[in-house]
User: Fold methylmalonate-semialdehyde dehydrogenase (CoA acylating) from Polychaeton citri CBS 116435.
Amino acid sequence: VASTTTAASTPTSYPTSHVQVEQPLDTQNFIDNQFLPSKATQWIDLHDPATNNLVTRVPQSTDEEMRAAVDSAEKAFPAWKATSVLHRQQIMFKFVALIREHWDRLAASITLEQGKTFADAKGDVLRGLQVAETACGITTQITGEVLEVAKDMETRSYREPLGVVAAICPFNFPAMIPLWTIPVAAVTGNTCIIKPSERDPGAMMILAELAEKAGFPPGVINVIHGSAKAVDFILDEPKIKAISFVGSNKAGEYIYQRASANGKRVQANLGAKNHAAVLPDCNKNHALNAIAGAAFGAAGQRCMALSTLVFVGETQDWAPELAQRAKQLSMNGGFEEGADLGPVISPQAKERINDLIASAEKEGATIVLDGRNQKPANYPNGNWVGPTIIANVTKDMTCYKEEIFGPVLVCLNVPTLDDAISLINDNEYGNGVAIFTRSGSTATKFQKEIEAGQVGINVPIPVPLPMFSFTGNKKSVAGGGASTFYGKPGLQFYTQQKTVTSFWRAEDATSTRAKVNMPT
Ligand code: NAD
Assistant:
């Protein structure tokens, strides 16, 4: 079985099952367009979540290696910035074509290292690919403004790249999240340091190989590895001008503060507790299918997973029917035909999720469907938690207050739409929210009064496509969400404005006395 972490160069050479990789190869750094073995003394074992077999060892890149990556990016910057936007666009076209060609290989790496099903992993790649495709339109997206501000005097604005920028990525979207940075940052003329999650860097390593093939010059895309130590290096390195972070609140709030204190631009997307309000007048069949899919798909390990259901009025009686839909989902190794959800990322994640389910039971909630102690027959050693539905949850319970990040749906009951809106608005997170109703006026009231930044109306996971921007708010972002990922705000994040004011009328400059007042 080929390891996805090698620079296997064909789109068809990738694992198609969870069998033990014959000779696990160490993950390498990618610096100056070269895959380089790390001289690390500390390594992180990466296990297939479906089997806990060793897939690769990920280095804690050494200080010397991390500095070499930054030096490479810094050295590449002036020439890369000086290339024409049309040239950078051509490289992006090739990058997009290569990602499409290697789509299955990228997805296989994700299934092996992260655990999500192969079909879902293809979606992970596609969502990132769409950011790259949209970035190909850079030639019309980055035009400046010009105005004649006085006679013979005009001001023009340009958007210029920042320099070396970095991305610190989470485990749950190993292709999509690096691709929230690379296309937008690189096409605008920046050079990049990417630190993928130490739990599944394989997809990023394939993207690095494809970036080199597409024609990105040495130093434009570099990859270093590790956990907190690599992150601290990025936060403190003066040559790095901006940081894009996606991950948990614990890491993100720390990263935002330390990087901001060091004078860097930071955009940081954090955790979530996404609610759906179900109204009695909704299309019940659509709502139940959508909720089960959005709660349990990817084993609930999506920042936009629907983890919290608000039954309005009589819909609380629908819990058993929802449990029926959830029971039909097949939990299995992600390469298996028909698998709906795979394992969770680690034995520790499984234990944490099981503890949160136990806490709900202890605090008086009703376990309608219990996913603890379930496992597919052929995968006895994986990190399995089956779909779990907890009803009669109240706001004070631990399972409501914490982001569970597993296939667990907590359900609360309220009598009216107004109660649903105030319950949801009381929650400190503001990533995504959904309402299921057939009434336009109900949906409009909800859309206007709800605080969360991404609203779905009969849409369970309303993630905006890349022509828009990812607009979570409240505790789901750091720094008040001043800068959001991709779309127009993404372009603004990776560029700074320069304005040039010019005056072209030298011929009548005959006076020999300087004017000292501001022109009025
Ligand atoms: P995580 O915070 O554990 O890890 C994210 C990154 O931060 C990794 O690269 C990791 O190496 C680094 N890191 C972890 N702990 C650190 C520490 N103490 N100091 C410095 N760096 C540290 O997150 P995760 O478990 O990989 O991802 C899941 C989380 O990400 C969930 O909370 C999920 O909601 C969130 N997420 C949010 C979005 C969004 O757009 N809002 C998208 C995806 C995931």
Observations:
- The first strand starts at residue 29 and ends at 31.
